């Protein structure tokens, strides 16, 4: 299969190449694509060097699928051009997520919504992906009424500049700042810009995307998203109120059987998910599973996943794998 990776030299684009290789996606020809300043640079895939090409050359090469991680404005401009050429676009930016004409997909949750007509498919926000993997099987069983989530998000979600800022600060070096404030030994309760309602864009993404992916607008979601000085994954404290009561052992069994979810929940032996252990893994980990004792039918849990993998690159590749498995690619 002929595969283009648009934004191939960026943090997520590099991870996409790695995931394609590790999951042995059937790439017969790779087309790494990036902006003008990166044209001619080389990326390595399966031990072979490939030269980065521009957007026009990539469209002309007619790949079967194009994995986009080049930012929202680039996606808005270029994804329709790729789609018009018959190329299936899987886009990692926020550009198409809430477009009513585009599907927003986590394959384990709602891959079945995809059809041959879907030429631009949106990859959800990283923090939403890991949460809905846990929410969906529980919603199917107990019906979710309300979700309260607080996130603890890795600097890798911002990009290379933020990683550099953290490492510079840790080493006591001056350097370019990705954030307004220091991130090392600090916590920044802002991800993306603030909106008129006092929430950030990241928080409203979690609210709106969760409803769209699960396919139920009645679920009430409220979020607080926070940047912490960690690399390796995003963590989430999630409080879930159900319509129906639950048994904790049954909850654990449902989650253990859910695709892409690993239960790490043994408090007696201090076993629980941590970003350090989730780093470079494709699964989403859940633990600290316990009743909220302040109100009925309510569960607390802790969810961790590698935001560059399942939160971005892996989910995009899994969408392509799903399309291939059902004959849509």
Shape: globular
Strand line-up of the largest beta sheet: 2-1-5-6-8-7
Percentage of β-strand residues: 15-25%
What low-confidence regions span 5 or more consecutive residues with pLDDT below 50?
none
Q: Helix/strand/pairing class, anyone?
A: alpha/beta
E-strand count: 14
Say what oligomer this is.
single chain
* Helix share bin: 25-40%
CA-CA gap between termini: 9 Å
Main beta sheet, described?
6 strands, parallel
Radius of gyration from the CA trace?
Answer: 20 Å
Mean pLDDT: 97
Discrete helix count: 10
Order of helices and strands: EHEEEHEHEEHEHEHHEEHEHEEH
Please provide a written account of the structure.
- With 329 residues, the protein is of the alpha/beta class.
- 33% of the residues lie in helices and 23% in strands.
- The chain has 10 helices and 14 strands.
- It has helices at residues 11-22, 55-60, 72-84, 107-110, 126-142, 160-171, 201-214, 248-257, 275-278, 309-325; strands spanning 2-6, 29-33, 42-45, 48-51, 65-68, 88-91, 103-104, 120-122, 144-153, 220-227, 234-242, 261-263, 284-291, 298-305.
- A 6-stranded parallel sheet has the order 2-1-5-6-8-7, with helices on both faces. Strands 10-9-11-14-13-12 form a 6-stranded mixed sheet.
- Helix 5 (126-142) crosses helix 7 and helix 5 (126-142) crosses helix 10 (309-325).
- It is globular.
- The relative contact order is 0.16.
- The mean pLDDT is 97.
């Amino acid at each position: 299969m002929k595969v283009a990776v648009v934004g191939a030299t960026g943090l997520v684009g590099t991870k996409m190449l790695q995931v394609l290789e590790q999951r042995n996606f059937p790439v017969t020809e790779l087309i790494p694509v990036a902006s003008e300043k990166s044209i001619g640079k080389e990326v390595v895939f399966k031990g072979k060097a490939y030269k980065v090409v521009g957007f026009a050359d990539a469209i002309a090469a007619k790949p079967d699928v194009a994995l986009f991680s080049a930012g929202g404005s680039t996606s808005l401009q270029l994804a329709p051009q790729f789609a018009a050429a018959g190329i299936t676009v899987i886009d990692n930016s926020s550009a198409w997520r809430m477009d009513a004409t585009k599907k927003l997909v986590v394959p384990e949750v709602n891959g079945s919504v995809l059809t041959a007509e879907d030429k631009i498919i949106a990859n959800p926000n990283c923090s939403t992906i890991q949460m809905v993997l846990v929410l969906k099987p529980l919603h199917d069983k107990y019906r979710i009424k309300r979700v309260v989530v607080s996130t603890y998000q890795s600097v890798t979600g911002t990009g290379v500049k933020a990683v550099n800022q953290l490492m510079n600060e840790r080493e006591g070096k001056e350097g370019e700042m990705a954030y307004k404030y220091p991130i090392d030994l600090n916590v920044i309760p802002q991800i993306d810009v603030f909106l008129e309602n006092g929430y950030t864009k990241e928080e409203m993404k979690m609210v709106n995307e969760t409803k769209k992916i699960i396919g139920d607008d009645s679920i009430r979601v409220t979020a607080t998203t926070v940047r912490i000085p960690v690399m390796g994954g995003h963590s989430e404290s999630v409080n879930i109120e159900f319509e129906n009561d639950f048994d904790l052992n049954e909850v654990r069994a449902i989650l253990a059987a859910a695709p892409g979810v690993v239960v790490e929940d043994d408090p007696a032996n201090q076993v629980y998910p941590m970003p350090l252990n989730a780093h470079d893994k494709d699964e989403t980990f859940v633990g600290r599973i316990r009743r909220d004792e302040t109100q009925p039918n309510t569960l607390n849990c802790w969810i961790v996943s590698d935001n560059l993998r399942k939160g971005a690159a892996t989910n995009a590749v899994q969408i392509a794998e799903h399309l291939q498995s059902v004959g849509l690619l």
